């Protein structure tokens, strides 16, 4: 398993009155395409953006994003 960042953005958008990707993008100052790429785990957000998204949902960072690493890379 490679290092990766996963997220629960889609879940939290749904729980936030079915917030659209565009609404979230506007709130954090990025494009809708950026939110799509993050949700599909094709793009890892900057730490600042990850905190902004978590703040929008009033959730701790680790509730919205998770980091998974391969144990073969640890020395």
TrEMBL record:
Gene Ontology molecular function, alphabetical: DNA binding
Source taxon at top rank: Bacteria
PROSITE patterns for the chain: HTH_CROC1
Any Pfam family: HTH_3
InterPro entries per record: Cro/C1-type_HTH (IPR001387), Lambda_DNA-bd_dom_sf (IPR010982)
Keywords: DNA-binding
Cross-referenced Gene3D superfamilies: lambda repressor-like DNA-binding domains (1.10.260.40)
The keyword Nucleotide-binding is annotated on this UniProt entry: no
Residue ranges constituting the HTH cro/C1-type domain according to the UniProt record: 19-64
Stored SMART domains: HTH_XRE
Protein's name in the database: Helix-turn-helix domain-containing protein
Biological classification of the source: Bacteria, Bacillati, Bacillota, Bacilli, Lactobacillales
């Amino acid at each position: 398993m490679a290092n990766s960042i996963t997220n629960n953005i889609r879940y939290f958008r749904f729980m936030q009155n079915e917030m659209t990707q565009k609404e979230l993008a506007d709130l954090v100052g990025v494009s809708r395409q950026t939110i799509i790429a993050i949700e599909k785990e094709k793009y890892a957000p900057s730490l600042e953006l990850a905190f902004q998204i978590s703040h929008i949902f009033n959730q701790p960072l680790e509730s919205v994003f998770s980091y998974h690493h391969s144990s073969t890379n640890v020395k």
